[in-house]
């Protein structure tokens, strides 16, 4: 019997894998449902209501300006003002804003523009898939160590690295199938949302290519998360090792470091935080700003100092981390006693 097919079947049959998959899909479905319910299609009726609301806002501003100007003139003619400093020296400057300054778009209901908004939904998709992959990967190998299944398996197939890598290959195959299927359904679901509750206009081949590449990076991020969870749990020979390490990285390595860097006044403190690189990997570039530094322009404007974190920086960090963690897991599997 093929070891790979056996491990793949074991992965699919595990109740924890099924429940984590269902939970992740339910969260994603809730996101789609929330976007569907909070948006609506802009039709002639909605635009007419928005125009009426904009006109009403303009009329209210006009009446307020007339009342304030009359109160200003009354206060000036009486020689005293009820509230000193309330009115300007020249009451004629109190005027209503021009009609064109009150835009109709301000009063339109929220609508889902596929070209403008869909890209922002790919980051939570990748984050949830990576979380599911990390937890399932850690549990898949961690349970084998804690229950003694790994020792029994090595009696049947004594090649340690072959066994561990075959388990990893089965894990990545299952997650790849889940991630690709979920991503395709994600695209289709939001296309339906945009069709019914927004617009799908201005979609070009370039826009589709950009979304497809971002979705592909999300799938890669999920595979990396699964591999890291698998490797850390193999290092600690227990699922809790990976989960505890993840909690430590989030609580101590992220929140703690962020607070420490903020107190120390470090420039571009976000450059030391993992979420910055995850966002840069998905969005291709993240621009950090340092508001403590001023870069004057020719027009006298003060702009903050900036630093760009690109997907190339993220790929280097993720690649090096993956090689180190997985390499350590393979080395310990080869060197340590199985007991």
TrEMBL record:
It comes from the Bacteria. Keywords: Membrane, Transmembrane, Transmembrane helix. The keyword Cell membrane does not apply. Pfam families: ABC2_membrane_2 (PF12679). The chain crosses the membrane at residues 20-37, 118-143, 164-194, 214-235, 242-266, 314-333. The keyword Manganese does not apply. This is ABC transporter permease subunit.
């Amino acid at each position: 019997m093929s070891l790979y097919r056996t491990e793949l079947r074991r992965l699919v049959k595990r109740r924890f894998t099924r429940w984590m998959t269902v939970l992740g899909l339910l969260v994603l479905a809730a996101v789609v449902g929330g976007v569907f319910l909070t948006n609506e299609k802009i039709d002639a009726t909605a635009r007419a209501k928005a125009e009426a609301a904009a006109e009403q806002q303009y009329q209210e501003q006009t009446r307020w300006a007339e009342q304030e100007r009359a109160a200003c003139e009354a206060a000036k003619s009486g020689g005293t003002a009820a509230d000193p400093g309330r009115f300007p020296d020249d009451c004629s400057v109190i005027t209503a804003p021009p009609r064109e300054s009150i835009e109709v778009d301000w009063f339109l209901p929220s609508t889902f523009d596929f070209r403008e908004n869909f890209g922002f939904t790919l980051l939570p998709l990748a984050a949830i898939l990576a979380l599911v992959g990390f937890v399932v990967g850690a549990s898949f190998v961690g349970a084998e160590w804690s229950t003694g299944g790994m020792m029994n398996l090595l009696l049947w197939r004594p090649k340690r690295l072959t066994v561990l890598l075959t388990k990893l290959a089965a894990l990545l195959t299952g997650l790849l199938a889940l991630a690709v299927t979920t991503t395709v359904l994600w695209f289709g679901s939001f296309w339906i949302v945009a069709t019914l509750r927004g617009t799908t206009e201005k979609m070009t081949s370039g826009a589709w290519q950009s979304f497809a590449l971002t979705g592909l990076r999300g799938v890669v991020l999920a595979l990396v998360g699964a591999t890291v969870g698998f490797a850390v749990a193999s290092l600690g020979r227990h699922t809790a090792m990976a989960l505890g390490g993840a909690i430590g990285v989030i609580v101590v390595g992220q929140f703690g470091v962020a607070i420490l860097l903020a107190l120390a006044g470090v420039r571009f403190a976000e450059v030391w935080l993992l979420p910055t690189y995850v966002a840069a990997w998905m969005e291709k570039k993240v621009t950090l700003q340092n508001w403590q530094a001023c870069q004057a322009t020719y027009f006298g404007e003060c702009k903050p100092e900036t630093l760009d974190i690109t997907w190339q920086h993220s790929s280097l960090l993720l690649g090096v981390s993956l090689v180190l963690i997985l390499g350590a897991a393979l080395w310990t599997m080869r060197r340590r006693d199985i007991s």
